[in-house]
Amino acid sequence: RKRALLVGVNYPGTKAELRGCINDVHRMKGLISQMYGFPDTPDAMRVLTDDQHDHSLQPTRSNIITGLHWLAHQAQPGDCLFFHFSGHGAQQLDPACSEDDGYDETICPCDFDSAGMIVDDEIFDIIVASLPSGVKLTAVMDCCHSGTGLDLPFTLT
Known about the structure:
This protein is of the alpha/beta class. The chain is 24% helix and 24% strand. It has helices spanning 21-34, 61-72, 112-115, 120-127, and strands spanning 2-8, 45-49, 80-86, 89-93, 103-107, 118-119, 136-142.
């Protein structure tokens, strides 16, 4: 089984406006569908972009968290999961002091000013820690501070 969550946030009309994130998502959707066989169906692929009129398809904090839960839900060994985020990334103080540099990495949903950013610890808990052994997860984080965006417990030496 293959499932994908693709998120593109251009933040139109704000000081944080970007221009290519929605296009990135459409291109990634074509790539994973055509080259890697991900079904382009609502039960296998969810796309959240801030040009959608349907609020449930906009990349709000709530919709992204819901989408991450959907992506990992009932994953089984042999499944292939794909998460793509294109938008702003940032950092915020780590209240748990679990980060070497004292900062958590975050992604910024379209409503980050009112709803808050999504912290790397949350993403890890939802789509990494919950997966059974044998599930393949690919995450493409096209944003600033994305190097540890999933907060994986590995160190490159």
